[in-house]
Amino acid sequence: MTVCYGKNSSDPSVCTFQGSCVRPSNCSCNFGYNGLRCEYPIYCYGVFAQSSIACTSTSRGSCVSNNTCSCYSGYAGRDCSLNICNGILSNNTLVCSSNGNCTAPNTCNCVSGYTGNICQYPICYNIVSTNTSFVCNGHGNCTLPNKCVCESGYVGPTCIPTCYGYNATDSRVCSSGNGTCTLFNQCTCKNGFYGSQCEAYNCYGKLFNSSSVCSTNGTCTAPNTCSCNNGYYGQQCDAYRCNNVVFNSTLTCTGNGTCIAPNTCVCKSGYFNSYCQNWQCNGYNNTNNIGCSTNGTCISPNTCNCNNGYYGQRCEAYNCYNILFNNSQVCTTNGTCIAPNTCNCNSGYTGPQCQFPVCFSISANSSTVCGGRGTCYLPNSCQCQAGYVGTTPPNLCVPTCYGYNSTDVRVCSNRNGTCTARDTCTCNSGFYGLQCEAYSCGGILFNNTNVCSTNGTCTSPNNCECNTGFTGSTCQLWACNGINMNVANVCSGNGTCISPSTCQCNQGYYGNNCQNYNCGGVLYSNSTVCSKNGTCVSPNVCNCNNGYYGPQCQFYNCYGVLYSNSSVCSTNGTCISPDTCSCNNGAYGGKQCEYNICYGFLSNDTTKVCNGQGICYGPNMCLCNPGYVGNTCLPMCFGLPSTSPSVCSNRNGTCTAFDTCTCKSGFYGSQCEAYNCYGQLYNSSSVCSTNGTCTAPNTCSCNSGYYGQQCDAYRCNNVVFNSTLTCTGNGTCIAPNTCVCKSGYFNSYCQNWQCNGYNNTNNIGCSTNGTCISPNTCNCNNGYYGNACQFYDCFGFLYNNSTVCNNKNGSCVSPNVCSCSNGYTGPQCQFPICFGYSSNDSRVCAGRGNCVLPNTCECNAGYVGSTSSSICIPTCYGYNASDPLVCSNKNGTCALYNSCNCTNGFYGLQCEAYNCYGQLYNSSSVCSTNGSCVAPNTCNCNSGYYGSSCQNYNCYGRVFSSSLVCSGNGTCTAPNTCSCNSGYYGQQCESYKCYGIVYNTSSVCSNRNGTCVAPDMCSLMFVQI
């Protein structure tokens, strides 16, 4: 048996229970212990050797002696806490290629952007750098995560190609999206586009910039896509309209011309205006029909379609009942023919042909004319029948009755009837007698003494006019003070109406209407009657109000005590009405004034009087409880009365009872002295985010520059500190108005940076064609490009290209803006200007030619250049518009080719014709055959003739149409030429004979037994004997 230090090896306590006795006094210690007797435990850096976390982990190494770890393969460090990855300790900066963490032996956990067993390969946009066919689009090296070093001709984060100065994502690349930049300077064109930069394309077989593309009427904007000029349409811009009618329609230009361009018509002869919608008849436009005398429609040049009843070249003639409108016999000589078969009668005549005179607004052919009792033979002239007379006015042939005509106010007894025929009165209702002189009232003749109850006069049938005070249909009633005698309330209901306005009053009543009576000698309506406490309802009868009594309602009580008793109202008030006490001076209260009042409260209101803390023992006299003071017994709190401004810590609360403060919300403590701001005591050093003072519960007074409920907010240049816009969005706001700027930004609020060496404030760094939006980054204005926005195009050509602005007809001054040279205009300077109008203006060259060069017109057929303005003016039948011979010596204006616009009164193709009063100037009957038509409606009369159309002439001082001309015995056929009627002779047809003897000789008519009044006509003389 081996013994170690006095104990057998079989003793469990040998070697201090922690080892085995292997040789005398030689212990072999268990793991984790040492010492001669294994009495000491082993620790590695504070951890017991047998612990699972000794040397970091039992899987990493063993604690072999105090603070000595034996590390397993792949681990290192004094406590085996370090991993080894490919021979490099995990705490070495070079471990995992410096791009990851060594998390286990030979196990790297790569940071984002790296991969590989030792994190040696960067990743660019999700592609490993070793994948050379795809990383950086196969045209660069991935040197760092998402960092490509591109080959020449490739740019951007992922090495996209560039084509002719633009990267593949630029909207302008490959001629602004006509293709895709697939490799350096290699465009793959979209369908329909071609050229190295996909800049070319065709529209229906013609190059996009050909002068004849899109039928010369539009712009080829994409393959087989024409953008038509204003007014043109169709796939190839080959269609257009004139006034919304398609150019090749038979209705275009109103059917009167040819549509040669949008809203541009070439009119047929005789038609004019923008859409050939106008023409003339007899010198007047078709729109007003004056050329057809307003009696027809001008349907084509100089062609009138006359209205029904009108005729003549200008529709100027018409008839009234087969007689020409201007004939002297038309309309029976009593009117004017104003339209076909339409007579406008003179005053006093009517009828279709004005054949009837009118008497007092009634036509002569009416059965009612002249009252139906006479004949209308001239206007307002009646011939009356026997027994009828004319009235003045009107002369209507009215009858007479007993010496008065029917219009006389005295007829039929002053119009008690109507005179309807000779001496025949038709009486009004209620009248009778031959002359309607008699009538009755209530069956009694009007002049009987008993009529109208003898109290009035019978003035008309059954109409009595009563004497004063009487009424009723026969004056049988009378009234008192406006109330009939038999009505119940007559005489105020207090008497009898014995005659008009005479009342006999009942006992105790008086007055003219028995309306008055007294109570106790006072008038019933007096305010003092019945002691003011009741109503006087009849003589000496008072009806007392509630609570009053006595013959005149003079007595009342207050709670059983007579109002005048000295003890009434508890001796503290006055009894002013039944059971109503008026207490003295506001010092007493209660129904009977039985309670004292202290400061507004009755002494029996113990919860309120003296604030409930005392006794009201007299008016405004409180006896307070202990701890309460003052007139109204207010509480004391910690030595201060409740009314003190300092009570409860300067009124942070209210002293509601003795030494009891009721704190306001947010305050606490016996005297309400404490409060918090957002969970921190008001006097804490960290209260209000250390940027202010806690002045009241949850109320911070912030230091200068700070704000917010807890003073936790501030601004830099008025922008809140945590806004993305703070420090102009280019830095971090760390304190009020204190910015830390990002790289490339500077100044107090990081508001400045540079582009190409110039500050962002003036945009010179972007050639003034863009905005410097961040360091060395320009945001170019629309149409500009380049790193400094230095380039721009005009309609697909670089600004300095030799073909820009239509072969340098101008200068490209900004994107798609050409400044045209003198004489050119249009967006691309493609239109020359002729005399102030662009070649694409419908008015250029006066609308009659093409402007081919500046101020150079190529005129259409039928038009020539004016010598004064070099614009295209029309010719009319061999003369240009400015020639004095044009349009028959300027009888009109040459408005279009071979189209004369005639002056008023002239017509014809060349304005060669005109009329005088409806007849052609060269007609044999013009000017009444008595003169010459020298201008429209202008006659030059032959000698002896006069009048507007030479229609008048005289015979010996009398007009030819006078009934007295030629002595009334012949016709004036020419100036001073009479054609005598049969039997008459002499220059003026003044002579004639009776049976061979001249009319004025003494022997005529058998020696003047009669008078020769006409040829062979003697008028006998009668002698009274």
Give a brief rundown of this model.
By secondary structure, this protein is mainly β. It contains 6 helices and 125 strands. The longest helix has 5 residues, at 173-177.
User: Fraction of residues in helices?
Assistant: under 10%
* Major sheet size, sense and barrel closure: 3 strands, antiparallel
Strand content: 35-45%
Spatial sequence of strands, sheet with the most strands? 11-12-13
- Global mean pLDDT: 88
Low-pLDDT segments, ≥5 res: 1021-1025
Structural class: mainly beta
Number of strand elements: 125
Shape: flat
- Helical element count? 6
C-alpha end-to-end distance:
226 Å
Rg, rounded, reads: 67 Å
Written description of the protein model:
The protein has 1025 residues and is mostly beta strands. The protein is 3% helix and 41% strand. The protein contains six helices and 125 strands. The strands form 53 sheets. The chain has a three-stranded antiparallel β-sheet, with no helix packed on it. Strands 16-17-18 form a three-stranded antiparallel β-sheet, with no helix packed on it. The chain is flat, with a radius of gyration of 67 Å. The chain starts with a strand and ends in a 5-residue tail after the last strand. Keywords: Disulfide bond, EGF-like domain, Repeat. It comes from Acrasis kona. It holds the Pfam family EGF_2.
What would the keywords be for this entry?
1025 residues, mainly beta, three-stranded antiparallel β-sheet
Which helices and strands appear, and what pairs or packs with what?
Layout: E1 3-4, E2 7-8, E3 19-23, E4 26-29, E5 33-34, E6 40-41, E7 43-44, E8 47-48, E9 61-65, E10 68-71, E11 75-76, E12 82-85, E13 88-89, E14 100-104, E15 107-110, E16 114-115, E17 121-124, E18 127-128, E19 140-144, E20 147-150, E21 154-155, E22 160-163, E23 166-167, H1 173-177, E24 179-183, E25 186-189, E26 193-194, E27 200-203, E28 206-207, E29 218-222, E30 225-228, E31 232-233, E32 239-242, E33 245-246, E34 257-261, E35 264-267, E36 271-272, E37 278-281, E38 284-285, E39 296-300, E40 303-306, E41 310-311, E42 317-320, E43 323-324, E44 335-339, E45 342-345, E46 349-350, E47 356-359, E48 362-363, E49 374-378, E50 381-384, E51 388-389, E52 398-401, E53 404-405, H2 411-415, E54 417-421, E55 424-427, E56 440-441, E57 444-445, E58 456-460, E59 463-466, E60 470-471, E61 477-480, E62 483-484, E63 495-499, E64 502-505, E65 518-519, E66 522-523, E67 534-538, E68 541-544, E69 557-558, E70 561-562, E71 573-577, E72 580-583, E73 588-589, E74 595-598, E75 601-602, E76 614-618, E77 621-624, E78 628-629, ...
Antiparallel strand pairs: 1-2, 3-4, 5-6, 7-8, 9-10, 11-12, 12-13, 14-15, 16-17, 17-18, 19-20, 21-22, 22-23, 24-25, 26-27, 27-28, 29-30, 31-32, 32-33, 34-35, 36-37, 37-38, 39-40, 41-42, 42-43, 44-45, 46-47, 47-48, 49-50, 51-52, 52-53, 54-55, 56-57, 58-59, 60-61, 61-62, 63-64, 65-66, 67-68, 69-70, ...
InterPro entries: EGF (IPR000742), EGF_extracell (IPR013111), Teneurin (IPR051216)
Pfam families: EGF_2
Disulfide bonds: 110-119, 189-198, 306-315, 345-354, 427-436, 505-514, 544-553, 663-672
